Write the structure tokens for this entry.
Amino acid sequence: MASSLTCIKKLSESLNISSNIPSTYVHFKDPVETTALDPQDSIPKIDISLLTSDDTDQRSKAIHDLDKACQEWGFFMAVNHGIPEELLQKMIEISEEFFNLGEEEKPEFDPKNVMEPIRYGTSFNTAQEKVHCWRDFLKLFVHPHFHSPQKPEAFRDVLAEYCARARELVRKLVRGVSQSLGLDEGEMEEALNLASGFQLFSANLYPPCPQPELALGMTPHSDHGLFTLLIQNGVGGLQIQHDAVWVSVNAIPGSILVNVADHLEIFSNGKYKSVLHRAVVNNGKTRISIAIANSPSLDTVVSPCPKLVQTESGRGLAYVPMKYKEYLLTQQSNRLDGKARLEEVKALDD
Ligand code: OGA
Ligand code: NI
């Protein structure tokens, strides 16, 4: 691992259930962070098959539901998404195999270069953080150019298939929100050059932590890109912020968790807000999640869609245009810090 810190998998294996974790992993002084569990049941579910239904009523209802979920939650569970559950399983299993390889078999990279297409590391950005995340990761650029580690051998094929299917799903979502924003179906994908859109794959490993109430797998943040898709190995840990409380997400098996990310907030001129989320850890089971960020092409200058900016009355241009690549670079080169990156491109006060 190209980092001065050892991977969290090794650290976790060296501890036992009554160990104290190193102070560099302690996020909370008092383990009193409470979580509201009630809103869990109301987390929206979107039936993806209806977004492309031949029945126009069903289609408009699905688009309406998508609009509501993006406005009220910035988050939903995608069901009937058409990606075989077996493929989701395989992607998770092969990622677990990757993390179980010996360190010498894992790819090396220059930790200072966040634009390296294959990065294996720990926490988020250890050079920038005071307190680290209880997480190891593998990050891969998978579109428009496809990169995969050499090992495990079957990794490349499973990855290629899953990422292609994920892009199809995102295309349906983008065509749906293009309409819910009052645009033509294909307008958004064209404006953001999604045919050569950037896709970043992350596999996250969260091993057991003896003091889970003091640590975090990932500190609160929003994602770059339009939509992030997330799947996991049946072990929960994702929390989203909704109405100022942290809500634990208990995923329906086989569903894909989807969150609105910063560039959809920007493009929609603030109609849809990216959701703040974090990952908590537990003291029993290893958790694996796979997140795919789906974005405009690297050289697209992302600005609020001109049709959604009213200059004479109401809301003007709420975000300053910025090249997607620049945004990505700054986000990845800093520590995870809430929605700080997005705040920097805001042109208006809320
Ligand atoms: C991410 C992320 C959360 C999780 O990878 O951006 O927020 O539950 N992951 O693993
Ligand atoms: Ni995230």
